[in-house]
Amino acid sequence: MEGMQAYGAGKAGGAFDPVTFFQQPQTILRIVSWLFSIVIFGCIANEGYINRPKEGEEHCIFNHNQNACNYGVFMGSMAFLCCIAFLALDVYFPQISSVKDRKKAVLADIGVSAFWSFMWFVGFCFLANQWQVTKDEDNPLREGGDAARAAITFSFFSIFTWAGQSFLAFQRYKLGADSALFSQEYTDPSQDAAGAPYTSFGGDDLESPGGGGGQANNDGAFDGTGGYQRQDY
């Protein structure tokens, strides 16, 4: 029986509440980051390439530096896909029964979000610098200026939305580490229907009258037994 208890062998799951899910701060930040990536990708892909009068060849609006446009388009498209992937992971997270897998998912969220925050910082600095040194004679008709400034602006905002996601994921990890979620002694309360004893926070063995109690409430935010619940970070 101890082998089954290790690393949360109990059944996870819970009813999916879309209203509560979309009210979660982390979900809101993911959606905002997703929208920002669309704006950045769209601005550069649609209006980031211009040509001088009487010239057929198009050049990147950022100081004719093709790498600047390529960087913005690549980052916008990849961030778009990454946001969708993590939104799907958030929906599936309560159904993950393995504590090891839940821990890996939260750690991946921390690392990937921090990485994207750094990459958007690099992108903002790169695009802003190239736009600053762009010569007026390279774009005499002033085409695409608003799109270029929008791409720079939303690159700057993306630094903080992704940093916020990393911070919230770290808070989730701390909450899981402080509770029984990532411990060897974790047992899903739904499997303790007979009222088996469990280890309290102080280390004393107590009887759980209903097989749940305070520990179930503490773990419910992660093991999915209580569905999606709002968390105050």
Write the layout of secondary structure elements.
Layout: H1 2-5, H2 18-23, H3 25-47, E1 49-50, E2 59-60, H4 66-92, H5 99-132, H6 145-178, E3 198-199, E4 205-206, H7 214-223
Antiparallel strand pairs: 1-2, 3-4
Helix pairs in contact: 3-4, 3-6, 4-5, 5-6
Would you write up a description of this structure?
This is Synaptogyrin. The chain is mainly alpha-helical and 233 residues long. Helix content is 59%, strand content 3%. The protein contains 7 helices and 4 strands. Strand 1 and strand 2 (59-60) form a beta hairpin.
Q: How confident is the prediction overall: mean pLDDT?
A: 77
Q: What radius of gyration results from the CA coordinates? A: 24 Å
Write down the overall geometry: elongated
How many discrete structural domains? 1
Instruction: State the end-to-end CA separation.
Output: 35 Å
Estimate the strand proportion: under 5%
Count of individual beta strands: 4
Short description:
InterPro entries: Marvel (IPR008253), Synaptogyrin (IPR016579). This protein has 233 residues and is mainly α.
Features of this protein?
233 residues; mainly alpha; two-stranded antiparallel sheet; 7 helices; 4 strands; disordered N terminus; Synaptogyrin
